[in-house]
Amino acid sequence: MNWDWERLQRHHLASSVRAVFFQTDHSEYPHATHGGTLFIVKYRGRPHGVTCKHVIGDFDPNMLHVSARTELTPGSTSARLQNLGLATNLGGAAVGSDLGDLCVIEFADDLPPDFFGGTEYPIEEKTVGRSEAEHDLFAIGISKEKSLLLPGGTFALCLLPLRDRGATNDPILRRASARYGQTEYETITGMSGAPVFNLTKQVLCGMVMRGSLRDGLCEVRYADIHNIVHMLHMTQARSPQMTDTRLPLTEAGMKLCGAGLAAWMKPIRSCSWLWHRALVRGV
């Protein structure tokens, strides 16, 4: 497939991507990260963040910085977090799956409606869809290898062309891969939580959960969009008193943790933005 890089870099999905990083109490190292990506969506009129639980790691979720735009500017504030939506009490086919690694970020009710400036990707019937084998895809996220979170550091946006290779043994994951003739990076660390777009159907089709890049072969496992939308629905549709709800399709429960998280975070220092891409030899 011929890849129109300029067009993909201007794709609306790119503006929804954010780096996963955290404020610290250390003046010498004001920001820290394990690497990772989140993206902002709008579901039923309300913005949410979507990412992988494992990118949070041992950091305090209170300190997660979710900026208003992909392009960070010194002094920018963070959206105030209210809850993290996680699947728990997995049963049936969901036991041992990656369902427990899906994470929905619920922002505060008083978040200004224009905080994200229209960069949210809309979750609607016509904008999301499921992939089939041999569909052309791309994933877009943050390269940890090329990013630096110190004051004056650099964030690097990574674009991976892929092709769907079908279902996996995990009921929520699909496999995608591509062989690259040349890349500007040695690993794809940081792509966990990156949205995956189906170019064949022109819809959002999932999110990267894990992957590798070895000897030019990029292998990715990504969560099917069906499960992401289900998580968004359960996070938004719960009653205020409900902390453990059954998900009938997955026999999982919904856990909402961290209610009353810290208010506006410390402003970020400074950074710049770079694009990095893979040169495709054969998808």
Strand content: 35-45%
Distance between the termini: 7 Å
Figure out the total of helices.
3
The quaternary state of the protein chains shown equals: single chain
Q: Give the number of DSSP strands.
A: 18
The coarse silhouette is: globular
Describe the structure using short key phrases.
single chain, 283 residues, mainly beta, seven-stranded mixed β-sheet, 18 strands, disordered C terminus
Please characterize this protein's 3D structure.
The longest helix has 13 residues, at 225-237. The protein is built from three helices and 18 strands. With 283 residues, the chain is mainly beta. Mean pLDDT is 78; it is low at 239-283. Helices cover 8% and strands 42% of the residues. The strands form three sheets. Strands 1, 4, 5, 7, 8, 9, 16 and 17 form an eight-stranded mixed β-sheet that branches. Strands 10, 11, 12, 13, 14, 15 and 18 form a seven-stranded mixed β-sheet that branches. Strands 3-2-6 form a three-stranded antiparallel β-sheet, with no helix packed on it. It has helices spanning 5-9, 12-15, 225-237, and strands at 17-19, 21-23, 31-32, 37-43, 46-52, 64-65, 81-88, 102-107, 121-123, 136-142, 153-167, 173-183, 195-198, 203-214, 217-224, 244-247, 252-257, 271-282. A hairpin with a 2-residue loop joins strand 4 (37-43) and strand 5 (46-52).
Topology:
Layout: H1 5-9, H2 12-15, E1 17-19, E2 21-23, E3 31-32, E4 37-43, E5 46-52, E6 64-65, E7 81-88, E8 102-107, E9 121-123, E10 136-142, E11 153-167, E12 173-183, E13 195-198, E14 203-214, E15 217-224, H3 225-237, E16 244-247, E17 252-257, E18 271-282
Parallel strand pairs: 4-9, 11-18
Antiparallel strand pairs: 1-4, 2-3, 2-6, 4-5, 5-8, 7-8, 7-17, 10-11, 10-13, 11-12, 12-15, 12-18, 13-14, 14-15, 16-17
